[in-house]
Amino acid sequence: MTTMTAPGPAVDPVEALDPLALRNTLGNFATGVTVITATGEDGEPIGITANSFSSLSLDPPLILWSLGVKSPNLDAFIEGRCFSVNILSAEQEALAMQFARPAEDKFAGVDVRSSAEGVPLLVESLARLECRVEFTRVAGDHLLIVGRVLRFASEEGKPLLFYQGSFQCA
Question: Are 48 and 136 in contact (CB under 8 A)?
Fold first, then answer.
């Protein structure tokens, strides 16, 4: 039997992890950039830039993303509520930043249409997944959100990536 060892110094699991060092290490994994959209309790559109998105299952069609537990938008993502994952193209860095910052109207100047459930869809995104919250679970300082894909669409193009703390093009 072959034993595999990891290169480099191991971290003693008893020691506290340095959050900044951990963030920098995790930054070595390139992720796509999305804008998650939903409708709030008051009917107002919600938009959040997120790179925590992942496919989870094809049968049934499930995706996964996470939202900080201190987010004022948590109530929009309770079980049964609908939302959309808008995957951004390489040309949409400004749009990612628009939805990443607090603003009175994040949707100002954005071409949007509504899904059958009334969820805002970003028309010019590289891909869109219309979803319903299947279930959630608190894990650490985030709420894991598993969504069932109801409908989807995609366009030709290159994705916007996030790597080592900055946007990149594929």
Answer: no
What span, in angstroms and rounded, lies between the C-alpha atoms of 43 and 34?
Answer: 22
The reported pTM is 0.86
Contact 132, 150 (CB under 8 A): yes
Q: Report which of 169, 156, 83, 162 is spatially closest to residue 124, judged by C-alpha positions.
A: 156
Terminal CA-to-CA distance of the chain, rounded, Å? Answer: 39
Per-residue pLDDT in tens (0 to 9) along the chain, 170 residues? 444 555 666 555 656 888 889 888 887 888 899 999 999 988 999 999 999 999 999 999 999 999 999 999 999 999 999 999 999 999 999 999 999 998 889 999 999 999 999 999 999 999 999 999 999 999 999 999 999 999 999 999 999 988 778 777 76
Task: Label the pairing between strands 61-68 and 82-87.
Answer: unpaired
C-alpha–C-alpha distance, residues 30 and 51, integer Å? 9
